[in-house]
């Protein structure tokens, strides 16, 4: 078996495993059960997409794809940070699937329009700190 055949076989196996991972992760995005689970699954989809791009780069020998994968990773990281800030500032309520009360961290404050600290409310709709 030549080195080219070994690389082609490894790329085929990698693409098959990444395809399975893509399906399982897409199921987690749709199924949830909570918003943070979905955000993590979306972050995983970005990582799987990067894996696809890198495997295709190795298989084709076109190294510009590596730069595209790096850029996709940066954009995915920024999207995850944006989703995390949204979840933190939304003051999550009851988790409908598990029934648990989801409360934000006591230090979770956002800056108001006049620069003052605006507390996030807890699961009961009461201010965490005031």
Number of domains: 2
Structural class: mainly alpha
Do you know the CATH architecture of the largest domain? Orthogonal Bundle
Q: How many helix segments?
A: 3
What distance lies between the first and last C-alpha atoms, to the nearest angstrom?
70 Å
Largest sheet: 2 strands, antiparallel
Order of helices and strands: HHHEE
Widest sheet, order of strands: 1-2
In terms of per-residue confidence, which ranges show pLDDT below 50 for 5 or more consecutive residues?
none
CATH topology of the largest domain: Helix Hairpins
Helix share, percent: 55-70%
The proportion of strand residues reads under 5%
- Average pLDDT level: 81
From the spread of the alpha carbons, the general shape counts as elongated
DSSP strand count: 2
Indicate the CATH class of the largest domain.
Mainly Alpha
Computed CA radius of gyration, to the nearest angstrom: 21 Å
């Amino acid at each position: 078996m030549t080195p080219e055949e070994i690389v082609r076989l490894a790329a085929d196996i990698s693409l098959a495993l990444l395809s399975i991972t893509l399906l399982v992760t897409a199921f987690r995005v749709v199924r949830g059960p909570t918003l943070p689970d979905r955000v993590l699954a979306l972050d995983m989809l970005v990582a799987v997409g990067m894996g696809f791009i890198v495997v295709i780069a190795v298989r084709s020998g076109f190294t510009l794809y590596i730069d595209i994968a790096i850029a996709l990773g940066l954009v995915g990281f920024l999207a995850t940070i944006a989703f995390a800030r949204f979840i933190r500032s939304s003051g999550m309520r009851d988790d409908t699937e598990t029934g648990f009360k989801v409360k934000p961290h006591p230090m979770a404050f956002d800056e108001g329009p006049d620069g003052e600290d605006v507390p996030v409310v807890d699961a009961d709709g009461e201010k965490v700190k005031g």
